[in-house]
Amino acid sequence: MGRRVAVVLAGCGVFDGSEIHEASAVLVHLSRGGAEVKIFAPNIEQRDVVNHLKGSPAEEKRNVLVESARLARGNIQDLAELKASEFDAVIFPGGFGVAKNLCSWAVDGKNCTVNEHVNSTLQAFHSAKKPIGLCCISPVLAAKVFPGCEVTVGQDKNVDGRFPDAETASAIAELGCKHICKNVNESHVDKANKIVTTCAFMCKAPLHEIFDGIGTMVQEVLKLA
Q1: First and final C-alpha spacing in the chain
Q2: What InterPro entries does this protein's entry cite (predicted)?
């Protein structure tokens, strides 16, 4: 029987929601791994809305659950309804929506707050010793909620201009967590906490390398499950 995996989205679109390629990659690799997937998102208003053509703010309001439903093809539930007891693992794709809607990292950095349902979901899976997968900026959720854990967001230096957000690694360390440097096609497994992370679009890399890196994360999550 395939593993039951919950996927948590943060909207639709890299600048104000879930990164679409990352969400798709997670779902493709889960499908290939024979997992049974259900998708969730918090039923809250987005912190902001970005015109992705112009890269500028849009004067409108959008709902995270409603926007995430675009990626889920309508088959989605309110995150408040997620029960860790019904799943073997949970995965969070990245995108600025994670740092804006699932927590306030985009504004407050390491001093951010985490959405109550995101926090309770992470705590429930962790307490049940069930694996948690995170990619791109999503590992900051684990860093904030689980001090002392190990995660990767790629490199801690902007190597060859490929890691423009390398300072995130320093912020993670300031939270009392250990940042593990990894390449885009790799993931890191914190065996003690069953947390699996990969950098995805935190690295400027060809799409297929990002896709493959997410694949290693998903594979490790399924192994731990």
Answers
A1: 12
A2: Class_I_gatase-like
Q: Which tokens is 212 given?
A: 């493959």
Domain that holds residue 99: 4-224
pTM: 0.98
CATH of the domain at 11: 3.40.50.880
| Domain total in the chain | 1
Q: Over the chain, what is the mean pLDDT?
A: 97
Q: Which residues are catalytic?
A: 136
Low-confidence ranges of the chain (pLDDT < 50): none
Quote the tokens at residue 177: 């967590």
CA distances to 47, 70, 91, 93, 120 from 181, rounded to whole Å, are 30, 33, 20, 19, 28
Helix axes 207-224, 20-32, angle to 10 degrees: 50
Q: Is 45 helix (H, G, I), strand (E, B) or coil?
A: strand
Q: Cα–Cα distance between 101 and 99 in angstroms, integer? A: 6
